[in-house]
Each structure stands twice: as C-alpha cells, then as structure tokens.
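STRUCTURE:
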C-alpha cells in the first residue's frame, strides 16, 4: 500500500521537473567547462532534446533511470503477458504496477521513435543516464561524451585526400646522386 495520501502523492509527482534537472545541469556544466556550446530543448527537433550541439549535428538526451526504464527487462510469460523485472537503478513500484509498466514501456518506445526520426534527419543521438552521473562515474561519463563529440566532428569534417597525379618521370628509373652513370 502507498504510505502517502492521494494529495501528498500528487504534490510529490507534480514537483518532478522535466527541464533543468540535477543530472541535466551536471552534463551542461561539464560540457561547458570542456568548451562545448549548445542550445537547450530545441522545439523544432523531434523529442525536444535536452542539449543540441549544431556544430556536431548531435542531440543529447539526459534520461532519468526510472522514467525511461533503464535496465528494465521484459520476458514473455504466456501469450501477450510479460514479466517485467526491475534493475538496480530502476525499481518499478509495487502499487499500481500495471500503470507504471505501461508508462515506462510507452516512454521507451517514444524514445526509440524520436531517435530514429533524428537519425533520418542526419543527427547523432547520445543518451546519458542518471546513474552514469553519480560522483564516482561523473568525470568518466563527461570525458566519454567529449570524446564522442570530437570523434563525430572529425568524422564529419575529415579532409578528402586527393592523390597527386603521377608524372611520367616518376615511372622512369633515375640513377641516385652517388651512383656512377655507365654509358
């Protein structure tokens, strides 16, 4: 049973924000310190990505583990029934379980659809999970994002190497300067 009244639960759930969350602020500060510039919640792109880096054609989604079902596994039991198992960072509530399973499933499906749309538009997508931003893993995660962004930029802006035309003189065997010429 839920330990909170309906009014307390409602107040608790409405206090949860979708913008400027703590994990999002960690990623924003970390990228800004590393010299990356971005736009927030681009309205014209599918899914309204948390961060948009146009120079890198990359969208970054900072997902909460609970709301997006990080590590949640589903296995078929019988017919159309599925057994849903929680993960370390995403515990599905025991009360109103069907509602939460359906909500998390819809969120995961929506995330996949939005990332497919962005990919067809030529955008790269990076998903950062809340559990990857714990103090122990934070720097490693931010360095990994920076590495990925630099790799994307290098791939997109790789110089096209055009070989020099070969001259006829290069095909001929020319004597070296120290060799004697025998006539």
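SEQUENCE:
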């Amino acid at each position: 049973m839920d330990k909170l009244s309906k009014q307390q639960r409602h107040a608790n759930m409405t206090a949860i924000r979708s913008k400027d969350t703590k994990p999002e602020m960690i990623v924003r500060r970390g990228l800004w310190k590393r010299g990356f510039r971005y736009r927030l919640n681009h309205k014209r792109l599918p899914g309204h990505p948390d961060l948009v880096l146009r120079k890198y054609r990359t969208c970054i989604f900072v997902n909460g583990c609970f709301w997006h079902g990080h590590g949640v596994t589903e296995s078929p039991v019988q017919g159309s029934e599925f057994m849903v198992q929680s993960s370390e960072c995403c515990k599905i509530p025991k009360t109103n379980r069907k509602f939460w399973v359906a909500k998390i499933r819809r969120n995961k499906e929506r995330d996949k659809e939005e990332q497919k749309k962005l990919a067809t538009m030529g955008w790269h997508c990076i998903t950062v999970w809340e559990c990857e931003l714990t103090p122990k893993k934070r720097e490693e995660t931010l360095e990994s994002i920076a590495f990925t962004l630099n790799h994307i930029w290098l791939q997109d802006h790789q110089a096209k190497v055009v070989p020099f035309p070969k001259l006829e003189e290069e095909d001929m065997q020319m004597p070296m300067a120290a060799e004697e010429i025998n006539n």
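REMARK: The helical segments are 6-14, 22-33, 97-120, 138-156, 168-171.
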